[in-house]
């Protein structure tokens, strides 16, 4: 065995040992797979994806505006839920825009309780630049008005390199929007990517009054996406401790699994992550 392979094997073994040594947290949160986790050539249809999630023990999935109604139907026939649809918004001094598919998706998902995930980009404003707040608030309030009659919520989605890059930005905008159906998402991988790991306990506390969704995955403490997005149970970052900190805030809402960019088939990756989730959460 080459030295590099040997070291990697030791690292995985150490991670597994720590995972099994930690006491299950007794979490009650619904655990679902994001859209990034449920697509490969072996599962080309909504039915095949929903069936795999059912067999593995996930509570449901996230998706996108296009095909949201079809995926919701495939999930609901298996007593699973469509938790969120990932879309986008563009914030500019003039001409801010939302995904044009959103209007139809909102109508199709009326009464489902799905949450609209909204990352915000901009050409005019740099990441975290508060000068974009006024345009963002106007855009988000417009979306909230569309979503409210359908019983849907909006969760602002911090994304590395976007205008709304940090959870701090999302909380600031949500507070200014000041609508009951507008909240925020805490994305673990993006928080690590922007270098905010040391602030996680304080960030969770600040986000808690507005927190609609949380996303997790296995990760190292830093690096590119192949290091910051791994199946749950892998990597050097202590996800068990993160979830304990999250639980201590009183958050009981859904938790999504991020699998963006993972190599291999989704069945193997989803199986690895749900096994780790059961160990951490105590849900069996």
Outline of the structure:
This protein is an alpha/beta fold. It is 41% helix and 15% strand. It has a single domain, classed as TIM Barrel (Alpha-Beta Barrel).
Helices, by number, come to 11
Largest sheet: 8 strands, parallel
- Name of the CATH architecture: Alpha-Beta Barrel
The percent of residues in helical segments reads: 40-55%
Counting structural domains, the number is 1
What is the name of the CATH class? Answer: Alpha Beta
CATH superfamily: Divalent-metal-dependent TIM barrel enzymes
How much of the sequence lies in strands comes to 5-15%
How many beta-strand elements?
11
Q: Give the overall shape.
A: globular
- As a whole number of angstroms, the C-alpha radius of gyration is 19 Å
Uncertain runs: 16-20
Query: Which strands sit side by side, in order, in the main sheet?
Result: 1-11-10-9-8-6-3-2
Q: List SSEs in N-to-C order.
A: HEHEHEEEHEEHEHEHHEHHEH
Distance between the termini: 36 Å
Overall pLDDT: 94
CATH topology: TIM Barrel
Descriptors for this entry?
TIM Barrel, 284 residues, 11 helices, alpha/beta, 8-stranded parallel β-sheet, 3-stranded mixed β-sheet
Word description of this protein:
With 284 residues, this protein is of the alpha/beta class. The protein has one domain (28-281): Alpha-Beta Barrel (TIM Barrel). 41% of the residues lie in helices and 15% in strands. Strands 1-11-10-9-8-6-3-2 form an 8-stranded parallel β-sheet. A 3-stranded mixed β-sheet has the order 5-4-7, with helices on one face. Helix 2 (46-56) crosses helix 3 and helix 5 packs across helix 6. The longest helix has 19 residues, at 3-21. The chain is globular and about 50 Å long. The model is unreliable at 16-20 (pLDDT under 50).
